[in-house]
Amino acid sequence: MNKHEFIAEAAKRCNVSTYEIEENLNVMANIVAEKLIAGETVEFPKLGSFHIVKRNSMTGKNLFGEPERQLDACVYPSFKIVRQLKTRVKNGCKYCQKL
Q: What phi and psi values does residue 72 have, to the nearest 5 degrees?
């Protein structure tokens, strides 16, 4: 499912226009980005939480004989899914049951 399909499904379920859903989704994405930049964690019950992960500087090794490189420290966003959602998908996924 892509963004447009998600917006169409949400608009149908909420009985509102796709424009309203798209605007709300864009505002939500901007708020999440602003809070992550500020160093805060954003939690959505029954879904998961966005947080910042800090990576220390390290030396990167290439297995193909090229010289080692120094990788700078950085921060990047991460998302952790709640256990309830993992369990729900695992138990309800028709594709997963075929494996």
A: -70, 160
CA distance 81 to 70: 32
Residue 74's alpha-carbon distances to 9, 67, 77, 90, in angstroms, are: 37, 22, 10, 33
The SS3 call for residue 57 is: coil
pLDDT single digits (tens) 13-46: 999 999 999 999 999 999 999 999 999 999 999 8
In this prediction, residue 96 carries a pLDDT of 63
**What pLDDT digit, counting tens, does each position of 37-86 carry?**
999 999 999 899 999 999 999 988 888 877 888 889 999 999 999 998 88
Burial 40-64 (b: 16+ CB within 10 A, else e): eebeeeeebebbeeeeeeeeeeeee
